[in-house]
Amino acid sequence: MSPMILEETLEHLYGKYNRREFVHPDPLEFLYDCNNLRDREIVGLLASSLAYGRVSQIIKSVSFVLERMIPSPFHFLEKASMESLSRTFYGFKHRFTTADELAELLFGIKNVIKRHGSLYACFKTAFGNDSDTVIPALTAFVKELNAGFNNQNNSLLPSPANGSACKRLNLFLRWMVRQDEVDPGGWKDISPSQLVVPLDTHLHRICLALGLTNRKQADMKTATEITRSFRIIVPHDPVRYDFSLTRLGIRRDADMMSFLNEYDTKTVAQHNGRSVYEA
Known about the structure:
mainly alpha
């Protein structure tokens, strides 16, 4: 793998697809109406936690939850009890996520905000600027959210401590930490350089094809290995290309094979002693 050629190819993809017009349908779009950071981080955690399965069902499920929390998820949770949450979301189902799990997540968010003032403040208590990644802080964050439920398993709150790639939680952190035309940001004291790629099977296949990892499992070890590979290319922002890469195979005008063929053509051209711009 040539980092120079890969960066050039990825930057082309970023310039083409890292725009708001290519976000829909994506649960990220729910954050754009949240000017208040206290609401945005709650919406972001909910939307990312439900971001698995068919995108149409994700949008439907997130809409169902947020419609019951308007106009302010922060103020909604401020007044909520576990009993009221169970009543409000009775009958909710998103694939294998139950209404009880949703209510537990929401009540966990409420308790974290009550203890720390915000989700951001909670995350920062365990965050170290000297850490290579956000993983230690993310582990503590999940533990705090689960604290009232004896840390029992919840499909919405996987933990890095169990080896999970934590794709949805890393997606949440990407949304809240990075700020560009797509990611709205807001958590300003955390460096994008410490983020970990939100790894799922789709991105894993792309990264295998690009030679960014040889690992066959899409787990946390693989996610951190891929992140290190991206950090060689763009040290200050290793998840910069995540949104653009995940358009491949999702959008009809973004074909993964065409992207990989372009990369391979430039690599062969370099090996033949020609400039990559001649490819």
